[in-house]
Design a protein that fits this description.
- This protein is of the alpha/beta class and 320 residues long.
- The protein has a single domain, classed as UDP-N-acetylmuramoyl-L-alanine:D-glutamate ligase (3-Layer(aba) Sandwich), CATH 3.40.1190.
- 38% of the residues lie in helices and 26% in strands.
- It has eleven helices and 16 strands.
- Helix 4 runs parallel beside helix 5 and helix 8 packs antiparallel against helix 9.
- The radius of gyration is 19 Å and the shape is globular.
Length: 320
């Protein structure tokens, strides 16, 4: 079983429009509302891969109750600690005319020390039956920046590999606790390491590799960097690999990075090589981007894309 930690889940609302008018009135041709947030997108993808998965974290109010009920109905294990404050909402406007999407994310609810201690007790117990743990998304209000670091340390003590997908201070603080894999995107890696990692034609892969090795030096076991249309670059102590999707996928990128995280977690538990992990993760991310709703993908899209994902050793790594 893979344990997915979602400390700041959300009710995701997606509005689909054709040609958004940002100074006027828009009438969406489709609206989807569902339990969401990064961790739930990861959990749904793992469930679609037939991987047993349980979601743990914090949820409150009617939205939190609806979220738990929805997940249970989808066959996902639910172990959410109730809190007094209301679970947050996120809004996405997906424009089919441009292939772009704008996201509006509310901050999370406040969490008391007693509520978090109740969650920690539940989390520690759940680790005993877990093959891996995914810690994904932002932190709610009043939790310290090192909250994920504490959860990773508990996982390491229990012998459970942890995958961390967050940003900012929470990402920086979590590195020293020893996550097996961290998955920043390019902007998050730049914020973590300082200098620009971009060249004239997009990501500078040699710079990205060097920055990822700095992250490993701070305590991460490996780093997998999302590069958008340029795919995924992974750096581990014994190598560096770059995986490219077969073609640029138009659609809603919300949830694509979460599908990548799910692919990495699934492959970690399955014992796949890094090359196969990246092939699996990039095909899942591309299939998720083509789906209309975050947290979903079409199996036929995944199967079509998988054989054409190109994986190669990094040039910088070859040159030593």
């Amino acid at each position: 079983m893979i344990l997915v930690v979602t400390l700041n889940p959300a009710l995701d609302v997606t509005h689909h429009v054709e040609g958004a008018d940002w100074a006027g009135v828009n009438r969406p041709h489709a609206v989807h509302a569902r339990a969401g947030g990064k961790g739930l997108n990861v959990a749904r993808t793992l469930r679609a891969l037939d991987r047993p998965v349980t979601v743990t974290g914090l949820a409150g109010g009617p939205a939190g109750q609806a979220l738990a009920s929805e997940l249970a109905a989808e066959g996902i294990g639910v172990d959410l600690t109730p809190i007094a404050a209301e679970t947050r909402r996120t809004f996405t406007v997906a424009d089919s005319a441009t292939g772009q999407a704008a996201l509006f994310n509310e901050p999370g609810p406040p969490v008391s020390a007693q509520e978090y201690q109740q969650f920690m007790t539940s989390y520690t117990e759940a680790l005993a039956g877990s093959a891996a743990v995914v810690l994904s998304g932002s932190l709610p209000l009043q939790l310290p920046d090192d909250a994920y670091a504490g959860l990773i340390a508990a996982a390491v003590a229990a012998g459970v590999p942890a995958i961390l997908d967050t940003s900012g201070a929470a990402l920086s603080a979590g590195l020293g606790a020893g996550p097996a894999i961290v998955k920043p995107n390019l902007a998050e890696l730049e914020a973590l390491t300082g200098p620009s990692l971009r060249g004239t034609g997009g990501a500078d892969l040699a710079r990205v590799e060097r920055a990822a090795r700095l992250v490993i030096a701070r305590g991460a076991g490996a780093v997998a960097v999302s590069l958008g249309a340029d795919g995924l670059l992974a750096v581990a102590p014994d190598g560096c690999w770059h995986a490219r999707p077969p073609a640029q996928v138009q659609g809603n990128p919300t949830g694509a990075g979460d599908a990548v995280v799910a692919g990495l977690a699934d492959s970690l538990v399955a014992g796949r090589s890094w090359a196969e992990r990246l092939r699996h993760a990039v095909a899942l991310g591309s299939a998720a981007a083509a789906a209309p709703v975050a947290g979903e993908f079409a199996a036929e899209d995944y199967e079509r894309l998988l054989p054409d994902v190109r994986v190669s050793a990094c040039m910088a790594g070859r040159q030593g």
